[in-house]
């Protein structure tokens, strides 16, 4: 949401606004990464013992 508001605003892109855009994009990427990890964890729940090394 923050990224869309900052990009579509008619104000000049200052340094603080640019840094906020970078931070919001990084947060979005981290959220996608954690969602991917959580979905794979949910799919492989209870199968760790099949691949564990003795």
UniProtKB/TrEMBL annotation:
Q: Which GO terms describe its molecular function?
A: G protein-coupled peptide receptor activity; luteinizing hormone receptor activity
Transmembrane stretches in the record are 18-40
Q: Which Gene3D superfamilies match?
A: Rhodopsin 7-helix transmembrane proteins
- Some GO term, biological process aspect, for this entry: which one? adenylate cyclase-activating G protein-coupled receptor signaling pathway
Q: What's a single GO CC term here?
A: plasma membrane
Put simply, this protein is called LH receptor
Q: Which domain of life is it from?
A: Eukaryota
Task: Indicate whether Hydrolase appears among the record's keywords.
Answer: no
Keyword terms, alphabetized: Membrane, Receptor, Transmembrane, Transmembrane helix
């Amino acid at each position: 949401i923050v990224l869309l508001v900052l990009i579509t605003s008619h104000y000049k892109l200052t340094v603080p606004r640019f840094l906020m855009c970078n931070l919001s994009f990084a947060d979005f990427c981290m959220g996608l990464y954690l969602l991917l990890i959580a979905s794979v964890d949910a799919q492989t729940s209870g199968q760790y013992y099949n691949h564990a090394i003795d």
